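step: validate -> pass
step: tokenize input -> pass
step: predict -> running
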Amino acid sequence: MSSVNKVILIGNVGSDPDVRYLDRGVAIANFPLATTERGYIMQNGTQVPDKTDWHSIALWRNLAEWAERHVRKGMKLYIEGKLQTRSWEKDGQIRRKTEVIAENVQILYRPEEYRNLGKEQQNNRQNDNNRYNDNNEDEVSLPEVPASDTIDENDIF
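step: predict -> pass
step: emit ->
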């Protein structure tokens, strides 16, 4: 039986993507993504606080270039990808980092200051929009995402 390495996250971007270009012009973008489990009150009255986890997101090639143009701190994103752990040695210590290698990204919500970001970019490039799938060379056009703080599961797919 084969195995599956699939990650699906919906969370908030913690900082603007850090985009670098490697040899031969290959782009890589990295940024943190926060996912939060909401707190609750137990039946005995004990309050359980919100729990936020931070995930390292990495995007390669065309997807990294797309993120450089469209992704900003505070945006809510839907991300599909796979987990990858890499290790290296620094100062005699072996270090490890687990990150999500994104293959599909969709903007679910833009803070007010970024509302027109996609529209301005669209004037310059007809096919740029809110969604990008790294398996395709062309970007996929989607309808505008509603500007509300609540995301319904029907808005995701």
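step: describe -> The beta strands are 7-13, 18-21, 27-37, 40-41, 47-48, 51-60, 76-90, 93-109, 131-133.
step: cleanup -> pass
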